[in-house]
């Protein structure tokens, strides 16, 4: 067997996609370096779920038990009405629920992936790629630290705003703004908090949510529609001030979140949009995760796509001697799935962000009907036949790759 041309791999981004790719590549015998711009792991963010194909990959990685142990304890989703009381409940075990079996804080998952890889992968924090020169057999990488080094392959896993992607593809991949801004922050837990994910729709196209975590605090989020991409490059203080202005008069727990903003150290505030790229590779460089195909939190599938893309790219690289063939195979397997996930139901997000009190009350009435026992029962008729293979049910195949050439040549 010939020696593959893709032995030494550099990955940009140590979140979900990057370390998952690193795990599998290291397992297949590649030499892997992960460069992360931040000085430490970025552990912020909210509850995410690891289900379907992501759960299967977690099982293959033997990290399912660690994910289970870090469960947030969320018991289901509750909609809060204009009277500030729960008006519809979707328990975790019900036929329709936003809460999944494996709910975990994003930061906990990042940590688990890091712990599972740090022995076999070199992590470099506080650095990033500033230049890439592709040659026939290698890529010369310049880092912001000034260091220069050659690798056989470079993979961008540095998120929706990936600067590594820009170095290679320029402005060709499109960021499709969905007319929505979202902010996440951690706030102190108080006696009246519960273990429900509580979702409150306010007037003027605003949503406020509170979710429990496993750390004795609460994860708050604030989302609002904004037709223009109005808030670019704001300082943290400016972001807080925009959020405070958006929370005025919203009702329910909005004032509490507004007050908590003053002391918050982990506000994550960004516009929401999907990345659509005509190709996920160029020469010796490829992309995975949000950098390549961010679906947005509206789909609930950001983590799933990141883990599936990483698994497939590593697997294909282990099977093909030429990286070009691996990149083609990865894209062929992954693109139909990404396209399906990125399709949003008609009217989303506009329909769920009403402007008037009347609009809010119509939405809440519909939600109440859906949460009612007869409708839940009806839904369970269609959803209770759980298939053995959750990935197939989602239309993605996860081959059991048996690595071949990479390990032989190490
Ligand atoms: C701090 C944070 C909080 C988040 N919170 C939520 C949330 O609450 N809910 C939700 O659904 N999604 C959240 N996300 C997004 C979610 O993690 C992704 O949608 C999904 O998991 C796919 O992950 P990813 O690894 O592709 O990208 P991301 O999770 O976005 O990770 C990208 C990583 O690359 C690093 N990076 C950025 N630029 C560079 C560079 N030039 N060089 C090297 N490294 C770089 C970033 O610091 C980050 O660690 C959050 C992301 C971040 C970074």
What does this structure look like?
The protein is α/β, with parallel strands linked by helices and 410 residues long. The protein has a domain of 230 residues: FAD/NAD(P)-binding domain (3-Layer(bba) Sandwich), CATH 3.50.50.60. The strands form four sheets. The protein has a seven-stranded mixed sheet with strand order 5-4-13-14-15-12-16, with helices on both faces. A six-stranded mixed sheet has the order 7-2-1-11-18-17, sandwiched between helices. α1 runs parallel beside α4 and α2 crosses α9. The chain is globular and about 65 Å long. The C terminus is likely disordered. The structure holds flavin-adenine dinucleotide. GO terms for molecular function: FAD binding; monooxygenase activity. This is FAD-dependent monooxygenase. It comes from Spirosoma validum. Pfam families: FAD_binding_3.
Chain-averaged pLDDT: 89
What is the overall number of helices? Answer: 14
Q: Round the Cα radius of gyration to an integer and report it.
A: 22 Å
Distance between the termini: 12 Å
- How does the helix and strand content classify structurally? alpha/beta
Question: Based on DSSP secondary structure assignment, what is the total number of beta strands?
Answer: 18
Pfam family, one: FAD_binding_3
Protein name: FAD-dependent monooxygenase
Keywords: Monooxygenase, Oxidoreductase
GO molecular function: FAD binding; monooxygenase activity
């Amino acid at each position: 067997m010939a020696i593959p041309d893709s032995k030494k791999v550099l990955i940009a981004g140590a979140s979900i996609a990057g370390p998952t790719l690193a795990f599998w590549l290291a397992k297949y015998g590649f030499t892997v370096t992960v460069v992360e711009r931040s000085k430490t792991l970025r552990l912020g963010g909210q509850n995410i779920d690891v289900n379907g194909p992501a759960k299967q990959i977690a099982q293959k990685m033997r990290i399912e038990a660690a994910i289970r142990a870090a469960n947030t304890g969320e018991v289901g989703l509750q909609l809060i009405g204009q009277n500030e009381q729960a008006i519809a409940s979707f328990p975790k075990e019900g036929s329709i629920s936003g809460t999944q079996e494996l709910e975990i804080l994003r930061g906990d998952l990042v940590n688990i992936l890091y712990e599972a890889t740090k022995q076999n992968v070199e992590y470099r924090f506080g650095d990033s790629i500033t230049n890439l020169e592709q040659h026939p057999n290698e890529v010369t990488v310049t880092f912001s630290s000034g260091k220069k080094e050659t690798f056989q392959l470079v993979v961008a896993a540095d998120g929706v705003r990936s600067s590594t992607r820009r170095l290679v593809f320029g402005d060709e991949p499109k960021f499709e703004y969905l007319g929505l801004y979202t902010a996440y922050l951690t706030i102190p837990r108080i006696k009246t908090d519960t273990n429900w994910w509580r979702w409150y729709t306010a007037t003027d196209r605003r949503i406020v949510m509170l979710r429990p975590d496993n750390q004795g605090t609460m994860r708050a989020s604030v989302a609002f529609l904004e037709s223009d991409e109005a808030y670019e490059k704001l300082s943290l203080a400016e972001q807080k001030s925009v959020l405070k202005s958006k929370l005025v008069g919203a009702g329910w727990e909005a004032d509490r979140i507004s007050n908590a903003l003053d002391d918050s150290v982990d506000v994550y505030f960004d516009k929401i949009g999907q990345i659509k790229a005509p190709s996920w590779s160029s020469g010796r460089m490829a992309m995975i995760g949000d950098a390549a195909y961010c679906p947005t939190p509206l789909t609930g599938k950001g983590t799933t796509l990141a883990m599936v893309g990483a698994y497939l790219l590593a697997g294909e690289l282990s099977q093909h001697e030429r990286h070009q063939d691996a990149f083609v195979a990865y894209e062929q397997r992954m693109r139909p799935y990404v396209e399906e996930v990125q399709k949003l139901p008609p009217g989303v997000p506009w329909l769920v962000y009403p402007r008037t009190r009347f609009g809010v009350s119509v939405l809440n009435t519909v939600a109440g009907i859906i949460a009612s026992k007869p409708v839940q029962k009806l839904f369970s008729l269609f959803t209770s036949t759980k298939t053995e293979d959750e990935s197939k049910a989602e239309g993605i195949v996860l081959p059991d790759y048996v690595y071949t050439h990479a390990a032989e040549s190490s």
